Amino acid sequence: MENIQVFSVFEISRHIRQVLESSIEALYVKGEISNFVHHSSGHMYFNLKDEYATLRCTLFKNANYKLSFKPADGQSVVCFGKITSYEKGGSYNLNVSSMVPAGIGDMQARFEALKKQLREEGLFDEAHKKKLPPYPERIGIVTSPTGAALQDISNILKRRYPVEAFVYPALVQGKDAPRTLIRGIEYFNAEGRVDLIIITRGGGSQEDLFCFNDEELARAIFRSKIPVISAVGHEIDFSISDFVADLRAPTPSAAAEIAVPNKDDLMSYLGSMQQRLSLSAKNRLSGDAHRLSELTLKLSRYHPQRLWQDYQQRFDMAEMALKNIKHLIREPQTAFQKAQHSLISIAEIKIRGKLDRGQDSMHNLAQQLSTLGQNTLFKYNMELKAKAGMLAQLSPETMLNKGWALAMKGNRVVRSIKDLKAGDMLSLQLSDGSKQVEVTKDK
User: Fold this and answer.
1) Which structural domain range is residue 379 located in?
2) Tens of pLDDT, residues 149-190
3) Is residue 335 one of the residues assigned to a domain?
4) Which 3 state secondary structure label does DSSP give 138?
5) pTM, rounded to two decimals
6) Is 407 within 8 Å of 414 (Cβ atoms)?
């Protein structure tokens, strides 16, 4: 016995605890509650059982205050926690960190498992997220055509920005819903007409929203060549489609506000840009005019007439000098004439050379000036045409030609049905004229 290692009961119990806790990760356990006790300390003690075994469980006070239901014997639940061992009692135990009724628990477990799988595959990575178009012209909406979500999105799009919206009718609840949602995404990608896709539905229970946790739907969103906004349920609701989409919107209304800019803000921005462009053009033209004046002055110095006058004057002075020399020296007439002809030839050669160079310089300067003026005018003409085109797209005439109407009550624009009552006379302005109409009902 002296060479045999003997362990105490505590050492064995501690070793078992270390083995259990290190080898078994946190897990989900489903079973029926029995022997439930809510202790005065705030901790909960109970057993989870099925037809074959029983597992002791502890749900401490710092975790059980988050429960959304009141546990009781006989309830079927799903618990999430870590297996541990209690040395003093020599038994193993599940330290529960969260607990939900079994139906919800199964869905949550599937949700977490799929979420983990797709994250590991990289479907949630920011590197794969596509940028949303800043000014979309056409938007595809995949949702129920009778749902409140579509109505909310349509109202906000009409108010904020003149964009075409196309609806693909899909189921948004039940086992067949993922298949129709996938077809909607694939349809818009195949057509290639829209700049952005919104997949959406309004609020509901976890069971109602669970169709948006479908793996094939997630992969269809990931494959989409067109950016996708996911707007499912309320702000507190999260689905797999939210994580894989290029952008998650907390509500359908928020999706519409994210998808398009506010036309009023855009018009204000365009007005500011127009003012800045006009000021910049004026400053540039003023600078170019000053430079043109300088070039004109510089060009005048090389004008052929000016050069000819300068050299004519020099020639006259040279001729006068020759006359003085003739009176001063007593050389033969032939020598004087040769000197005179030689000086005249030299002067003419120099004058012709400088006149040619002056004409070339004047021609180059005139050509530079013409090119500079044409380029400047062309540049600002193109910028003004581009801004005019953008303003034309947002003009009232353009909006009326697209099918919009302007309702006037007296001298005021009608912005809400709250401003109307039965018997009111309205002037309805359309693209080809106006009509007087009468409101017959309050609602």
Assistant:
1) 265-393
2) 999 999 999 999 889 999 999 999 988 999 999 999 999 999
3) yes
4) strand
5) 0.47
6) yes
